[in-house]
């Protein structure tokens, strides 16, 4: 199995990956998505752009919306912000969720042509590795979405390192990768307690390695991507 990395927010041209692509957003999109599925959501529709997400939510029957703008603030007019802790007690049973966020969703759209496409974070990393192995992947590209000019993105790089180590059969210490999430540039903003829309409870969830035993493959429904 061959491995590569793609950093979503770097400007240089990078080759396309067409076999198996794993889009990682630990803080917080795909931690939020995993919690939504655990809370009973039927499907999650990742949509790039606030207006497009609102339009899709209006078309879907009894859909709920999760949205955030750059920096993590909730998107106006959405039912929920991009906060996994906010969803822990939400009744999402059977609901369709439209999600629009600044990083993870854009990564999925960028690689929508991949043979196998996964959304993931540390909370379902081992399950993602198991799904990749079971699908017989030959090449795996990890898409790092959290690296920006003011963020090292190590929360996502740590998740990629963990999944790659699992696929290689290496010995791993999950606590090491959880600590890297907490120590990342963005993780420290949650710890600081000075950003009202970056609660410590979200960081605690995002660093809970293998909390869930399911992967999040991304399929297609008409023209929309869908996570089930």
Characterise the protein shown here.
This protein has 228 residues and is an alpha/beta fold. The chain has one domain: Alpha-Beta Complex (putative 2-phosphosulfolactate phosphatase), CATH 3.90.1560. Strands 1-7-2-6-8-9 form a 6-stranded mixed sheet, sandwiched between helices. Strands 3-5-4 form a 3-stranded parallel sheet, with helices on both faces. Strand 8 and strand 9 form a beta hairpin. Helix 4 crosses helix 5 and helix 5 runs antiparallel to helix 6. The longest helix is centred in the C-terminal third of the chain and has 15 residues. The two termini are 25 Å apart. The mean pLDDT is 94.
Quick overview of this protein structure:
This protein has 228 residues and is of the alpha/beta class. The protein has eight helices and nine strands. It is 34% helix and 20% strand.
Which term fits the overall shape?
Answer: globular
Mean pLDDT: 94
- Which regions have little confidence, pLDDT < 50, spanning 5+ residues? none
Give the CATH architecture.
Answer: Alpha-Beta Complex
Topology:
Layout: E1 2-7, E2 20-24, H1 29-38, E3 43-46, H2 50-59, E4 64-67, E5 96-100, H3 104-110, E6 116-120, H4 125-134, E7 139-144, H5 154-168, H6 174-183, H7 185-192, H8 200-206, E8 216-221, E9 224-227
Parallel strand pairs: 1-7, 2-6, 2-7, 3-5, 4-5
Antiparallel strand pairs: 6-8, 8-9
Tag the structure with descriptive keywords.
single chain; 228 residues; putative 2-phosphosulfolactate phosphatase; six-stranded mixed β-sheet; three-stranded parallel β-sheet; 9 strands; 34% helix; globular
């Amino acid at each position: 199995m061959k491995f590569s990395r793609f950093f979503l927010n770097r400007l240089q041209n990078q080759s396309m990956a067409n076999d198996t692509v794993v889009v990682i957003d630990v803080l917080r999109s795909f931690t939020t998505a995993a919690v939504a599925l655990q809370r009973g959501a039927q499907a999650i529709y990742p949509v790039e752009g606030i207006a497009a997400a609102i339009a899709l939510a209006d078309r879907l029957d009894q859909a709920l919306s999760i949205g955030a703008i750059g920096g993590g603030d909730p998107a106006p007019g959405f039912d929920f912000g991009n906060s996994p802790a906010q969803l822990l007690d939400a009744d999402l049973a059977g609901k369709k969720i439209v999600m629009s966020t600044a990083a993870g969703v854009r990564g999925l759209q960028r690689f929508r042509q991949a043979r196998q496409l996964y959304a993931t974070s540390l909370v379902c990393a081992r399950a993602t590795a198991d799904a990749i192995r079971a699908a017989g992947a030959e090449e795996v590209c990890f898409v790092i979405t959290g690296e920006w000019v003011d963020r090292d993105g190590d929360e996502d790089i740590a998740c990629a390192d963990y999944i790659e180590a699992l696929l290689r059969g290496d010995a791993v210490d999950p606590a090491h990768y959880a600590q890297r999430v907490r120590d990342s540039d963005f993780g420290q903003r949650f710890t600081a307690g000075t950003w009202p829309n970056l609660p410590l409870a979200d960081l605690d969830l995002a660093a809970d390695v293998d909390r869930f035993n399911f992967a999040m493959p991304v399929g297609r429904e008409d023209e929309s991507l869908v996570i089930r």
